[in-house]
Design brief:
This protein is an alpha/beta fold and about 600 residues long. The chain has 3 domains: about 20-160 and about 375-520, FAD/NAD(P)-binding domain; about 170-365, FAD/NAD(P)-binding domain (3-Layer(bba) Sandwich), CATH 3.50.50.60; about 570-604. It is about 30% helix and about 15% strand. It has helices spanning about 30-40, 60, 95-105, 200-210, 245-255, 255-270, 280-300, 305-310, 325-330, 390, 425-445, 455-470, 500-505, 535-540, 580-590, 590-600; strands at about 20-25, 45-50, 115, 115-125, 130-135, 140-150, 150-155, 175-180, 190-195, 215-220, 335-340, 340-345, 350, 355-360, 360-365, 380, 410, 420, 450-455, 495, 515-520. Strands 3-2-1-7-17 form a 5-stranded parallel sheet, covered by helices on one side. Strands 8-15-9-10-11 form a 5-stranded parallel sheet, covered by helices on one side. It is globular, with a radius of gyration of 29 Å. Bound molecules: NADP nicotinamide-adenine-dinucleotide phosphate. The site of NADP nicotinamide-adenine-dinucleotide phosphate has 30 residues, from α4. GO terms for molecular function: flavin adenine dinucleotide binding; N,N-dimethylaniline monooxygenase activity; NADP binding. Keywords: FAD, Flavoprotein, Oxidoreductase. Belongs to the FAD-binding monooxygenase family. This is FAD/NAD(P)-binding domain-containing protein. Its cofactor is FAD.
């Protein structure tokens, strides 16, 4: 767009410099980037490197039986892309993936994505004020290098699955797989299957394999709550009816206002759920009791399971899952519950911590991900050679979850403290993207080379995070990925507040919290970018009145005609116009062509 070589002071104010943005990952964050950045950043070159062969991130990768989102579908969508056709209250992974593909197609997202490109390394080059990036092209196994002004890390929070540390794991002779690396050829019909783990994944898998399996031996070494009501559902049972009938969907499709009202209702319920996360409140105690009663009731056929899995911390301390059908499946006759850890795996089965042997045909490890935030394998090396790993020792910290000291022009999507503890994560993500866009607009328009958050601002945010969580249930002793899979320690997985709180906090950047490096063009005079007093549209003789199309009309306080209003067209004299006003207007309009021609000859 700006190819002219005129100095800045001789260019229009909006002669935005070219900006190259690289985003890592094409899940929700990357897709949003590919929609919003081209919309708001002119003169943009955008590249998204995605390790998989398709978009979708976690929804492309996770394919275990029962994979679904335990957040209501109507909340788990972009604010600007309502889907009235969700077929279930908790959409399956496949349906979410289809939604993302539809959205990506509509906004031509894939043209920015280089699929099967695995990010390896990034290093900040001070001399060019850009990131140098290395990516492996998985098609050719060759290293691709690239540079960019802005680096966005949208690789997801829970991306790296790992085998648990159980001796003999690979000695097992039958099929075995991790939930996040599902073998789609595996058929569990009439098989004895060990299911290890009762996090969100294991909880979804059990009710889906139990009906056809001969037997499921379910290992749960820790404790967990199963939520009596689903997120966004107001009452117990409301969300168990997971199917949304075609009749209902038709109503949503044909009545956008009814559907929008429904979105408000479900999302409002999600926002309210924050109230149960504050310690020692009545509502929190009530929810604790409701969860306890519900679990006790649903497990009454096998009360020893209730005794074994009932935690002594409040529900929500570790990520809560509604798990429709999970407790019901647990009490089925073909499910054996083992409330201990696993001593070892043999060729034919597993030995539990009590020394009992369980012979099985197949093993499913729903044992979770790497929660360390460790980036050593794919290093990011910032200003002065400081690695992200060093910046994040002893714990990962990010200013407003978005950026870290020594890491200029690097922004995280769902960085440390980036997930809202209550409310829509997608709505928050949209605000994160809008926030980063505002930063990039500043860098572009004002010819700023780089911005880096100050240590002081980072510390202030971290202190705030600690103060906030001290009053919440998240800091009870419970093993949770919010604390990097520890029982104690800093909360790094959650935003200090609700989604709506985050949306408010991220409305506009506090630029005083950043350190800036100017580009050479503005080093003599920081305001050189004010340019020649014109805009590009003026210079190109294009439409200059766009502001009239986007008027922010203030709400009128008084409606109708002002009392005592005079008809000025009948008698202009009384309103201060000369009695000859009409004649004067006529004279001006007669000369309008002459005037226009004269203005056109004024030298630029
Ligand atoms: P997870 O929550 O970390 O659960 C892992 C389970 O495996 C735990 O029960 C853990 O027990 C057990 N485990 C780990 N190592 C073990 C070992 N050596 N021996 C025996 N048991 C072992 O993992 P996840 O279920 O995959 O879920 C991770 C996160 O992904 C969730 O919290 C959620 O945020 C996200 N997720 C979301 C959805 C969704 O619908 N939105 C679905 C799936 C996952 P201990 O806790 O006792 O260690």
């Amino acid at each position: 767009m700006v190819s002219d070589s005129r100095p800045l002071y001789d260019r229009p104010i909006d002669a935005n410099r070219k900006i190259k943005v690289v985003c890592l990952g094409a899940g929700y964050s990357g897709i949003l980037t590919a929609i919003r950045f081209p919309q708001h950043i002119p003169n943009l070159e955008l590249v998204i490197y995605e390790k998989n062969a398709d978009i979708g991130g976690t929804w492309y990768e996770n394919r275990y039986p029962g994979i679904a989102c335990d957040i209501p579908s109507h909340v788990y969508q972009f604010t600007f892309e309502s889907n009235p056709n969700w077929s279930r209250f908790y959409a399956t992974g496949g349906e979410i993936q289809e939604y993302l593909k539809d959205v990506a197609w509509k906004y031509d997202v894939e043209k920015y994505v280089r699929f099967r490109h695995y990010f390896q390394r990034a290093e900040w080059d001070e001399s060019i004020q850009q990131w140098r990036i290395e990516v492996t092209d998985l098609n050719t196994n060759k290293t691709v290098t690239d540079t960019c002004d802005i680096l966005l890390k949208g690789t997801g929070l829970l991306n790296t699955w790992k085998w648990p540390d159980i001796p003999g794991l690979h000695d097992f002779k039958g099929p075995y797989m991790h939930s996040a690396n599902w073998d789609s050829s595996f058929d569990w019909t009439d098989k004895r299957v060990a299911l290890i783990g009762a996090g969100s994944s294991g909880i979804q898998i059990l009710p889906n394999i139990q009906p056809k399996a001969k037997q499921v031996v379910h290992f749960m070494k820790g404790k967990t709550w199963i939520s009596p009501v689903g997120y966004g559902a107001e009452e117990e049972g409301e969300s168990d009816g997971v199917e949304i009938s075609e009749e209902q969907r038709k109503v949503f499709r044909e009545n956008p206002s009814i559907y929008q009202k429904y979105r408000h209702q479900i999302e409002g319920g999600m926002n309210k759920s924050q109230l149960v996360t504050f310690r020692d409140t009545d509502i929190q105690k009530l929810f604790w009791k409701m969860s306890d009663d519900s679990m006790k009731e649903k497990l009454k056929k096998k009360p020893w399971i209730y005794e074994s899995m009932r935690p002594d911390y409040p529900p929500g301390c570790r990520r809560l899952t509604p798990g429709p059908g999970y407790l019901e499946a647990l009490v089925e006759d073909n499910v054996e519950f083992v409330g201990t850890g696993i001593r070892k795996v043999t060729e034919t089965g597993l030995v539990d911590d009590n020394g009992d042997f369980h012979e099985v045909d197949a093993i499913i490890y729903a044992t979770g991900f790497d929660y360390s935030f460790n980036s050593a394998a794919t290093p990011i090396i910032g200003r002065g050679g400081k690695t992200l790993e060093e910046v994040w020792t002893p714990h990962p910290e990010a200013y407003l979850s978005l950026c870290a000291p020594k890491m200029p022009n690097l922004f995280f999507f769902l960085g440390p403290n980036g997930g809202p503890g209550a409310g829509s994560f997608i709505a928050m993500l949209e605000n994160v993207v809008d926030y980063v866009i505002q930063c990039v607009q500043k860098l572009q328009r004002e010819y700023v080379a780089s911005m880096e958050v100050s240590e002081t601002a980072q510390k202030a945010f971290s202190e705030h995070v600690d103060r906030y969580f001290a009053k919440t249930i998240f800091t009870y002793k419970c093993k949770s990925w919010f604390k990097r899979n520890n029982e104690d320690g800093r909360i790094v997985g959650l935003w200090p507040g609700s989604s709506v709180h985050a949306q408010e906090a991220l409305k506009s950047p506090r630029f005083e919290d950043f350190l800036f490096v100017q580009r050479p063009e503005t080093q003599q005079n920081i305001l050189t970018w004010l340019g020649n007093g014109m805009t590009t549209a003026q210079e190109n003789d294009e439409k200059t009145t766009g502001y009239l199309d986007t008027v922010d009309v203030p709400p009128a306080i008084n409606k109708g005609p002002r009392p005592g209003k005079k008809d000025a067209s009948v008698n202009g004299h009384e309103d201060g116009l000369s009695p000859h006003g009409e004649t004067e207007v006529k004279v001006v309009s007669e000369h309008i062509e002459e005037l226009t021609a004269a203005v056109a000859t004024v030298p630029l």
